[in-house]
């Protein structure tokens, strides 16, 4: 089974990335920051977790206000680095862990935490500011990351208590995963800072030190605090420390703080904490191994039915995107002008191209095309849903209509 071996709390201020890319590790102003990450780097080097689960927020780089999820877990094979306006940082693509990520999504939703799921979104400094200081990455990263995005940029935010409980649910999910994996949980976000308005530059070291103490020994006190308390005590943007509560919720109470660094360089208190589980193999007795989605047990035995889940969504994203793009008039025109060329350009496999050419509706559904994108394809090629239904059932249109109350429907 998968085990949580510890947790890391870290600031993710983008200047860490800028200083890192400019090789300022030995600059007197930056050295205390970089030195502060070294014990965390060594801890990871020694413990070698297979997976880091990172609670982070996106700073309007991969998500925008048209749809900003409260919680979203990444289930992709890999993640790119977001271009935040100054070009993509020279870091390798970051591997994900689709198996554990899918399991986390299934178990958390069944535990009544309704997370969104994402695939094709790059990760910004919420992950990539601290990560290069925690893991070596000359040509590739030494493990996988499962990013869990938390909304801390548009109120209403999830409460600190909700984040703490999300961490507890995450632990249950991880411990129920059958594969032997070691996992460290990371919560990112600055401690005290404010970066907008006349109060810009606000810091409160006294509060930061108290927060550092409470997150270890009494996280429930932090979990009970309101967002306004965090704003008042630590500055408006410091409310993002609720992501540390998610990390702490995923740990047991039998932990040791093996590292702490606090350095206030510019506007954000740059902090690194490492908590180690004293007995990661301890059986908490809370969870048994579970696989799959308990809501769907037995569904595969229901004839002629193909449940669309995250596994299908990740495996068949290219084909589904191809049909989804048919809501776009230019894409429709390109397809109609030369179907084979459009399939080639979209990178469809020969098998997918054949099913498209033959309008093999049932083949496409069995393969993993979602009906709600297929119906856009049907509109484009002049078939009604009723005609598609008939073909999927292996009937003529007339035979299918005879089974309905509206036999003259077209
Ligand atoms: Fe942030």
Automatic annotation (TrEMBL):
Transmembrane segments: none annotated. SUPFAM superfamilies: LigA subunit of an aromatic-ring-opening dioxygenase LigAB, LigB-like. Residues 8-269 form the Extradiol ring-cleavage dioxygenase class III enzyme subunit B domain. Keywords: Dioxygenase, Oxidoreductase. GO terms for molecular function: ferrous iron binding; oxidoreductase activity, acting on single donors with incorporation of molecular oxygen, incorporation of two atoms of oxygen. The keyword Oxidoreductase applies. InterPro entries: Gallate_Doxase_N, LigA_sf, Xdiol_dOase_LigA, Xdiol_dOase_suB. Residues 319-405 form the Extradiol ring-cleavage dioxygenase LigAB LigA subunit domain. It comes from the Bacteria. NCBIfam families: PRK13364.1 (NF009901), PRK13365.1 (NF009902), PRK13366.1 (NF009903), PRK13367.1 (NF009904), PRK13379.1 (NF009919). This is Protocatechuate 4,5-dioxygenase beta chain subunit b protein. It comes from Polymorphum gilvum (strain LMG 25793 / CGMCC 1.9160 / SL003B-26A1).
């Amino acid at each position: 089974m998968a085990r949580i071996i510890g947790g890391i709390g870290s600031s993710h201020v983008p200047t860490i990335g800028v200083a890192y890319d400019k090789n300022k590790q030995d600059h007197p102003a930056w050295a205390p920051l970089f030195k502060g990450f070294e014990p965390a780097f060594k801890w990871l080097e020694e413990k070698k977790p297979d997976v880091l689960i990172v609670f982070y927020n996106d700073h309007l780089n991969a998500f925008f206000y048209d749809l900003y999820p409260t919680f979203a877990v990444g289930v992709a094979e890999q993640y790119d680095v977001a271009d935040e306006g100054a070009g993509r940082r020279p870091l390798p693509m970051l591997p994900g862990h689709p198996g554990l990520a899918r399991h986390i999504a299934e178990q958390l939703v069944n535990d009544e935490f309704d997370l969104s799921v994402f695939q094709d979104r790059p990760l910004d400094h919420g992950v990539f500011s601290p990560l290069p200081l925690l893991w070596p990455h000359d040509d590739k990263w030494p493990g996988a990351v499962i990013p869990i995005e938390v909304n801390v940029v548009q109120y209403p935010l999830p409460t600190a208590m909700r984040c703490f409980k999300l961490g507890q649910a995450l632990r249950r999910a991880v411990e129920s995963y059958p594969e032997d994996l070691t996992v460290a949980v990371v919560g990112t976000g600055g401690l005290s800072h404010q970066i907008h308005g006349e109060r810009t530059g606000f810091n409160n070291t006294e509060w930061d030190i108290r927060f550092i103490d409470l997150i270890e020994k009494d996280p429930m006190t932090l979990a009970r605090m309101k967002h306004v308390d965090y704003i008042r005590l630590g500055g408006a943007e410091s409310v993002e420390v609720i992501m540390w509560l998610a990390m702490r919720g995923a740990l047991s109470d039998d932990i040791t703080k093996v590292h702490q660094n606090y350095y206030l360089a510019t506007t954000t208190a740059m902090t690194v904490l490492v908590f180690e589980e004293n007995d990661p193999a301890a059986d908490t007795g809370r969870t048994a191994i579970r696989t799959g989605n308990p809501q769907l047990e037995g569904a595969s035995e229901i004839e002629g039915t193909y449940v669309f889940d995250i596994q299908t969504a990740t495996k068949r994203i290219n084909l589904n995107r191809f049909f989804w793009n048919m809501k776009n008039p230019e894409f429709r025109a390109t397809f109609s002008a030369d179907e084979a060329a459009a399939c080639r350009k979209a990178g469809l496999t020969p098998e997918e191209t054949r099913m498209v050419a033959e309008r093999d509706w049932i083949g496409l559904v069995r393969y993993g095309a979602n009906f709600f994108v297929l119906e856009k394809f049907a509109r484009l090629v002049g078939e009604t849903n009723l005609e598609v239904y008939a073909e999927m059932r292996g009937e003529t249109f007339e035979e299918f209509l005879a089974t309905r109350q509206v036999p003259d429907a077209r």
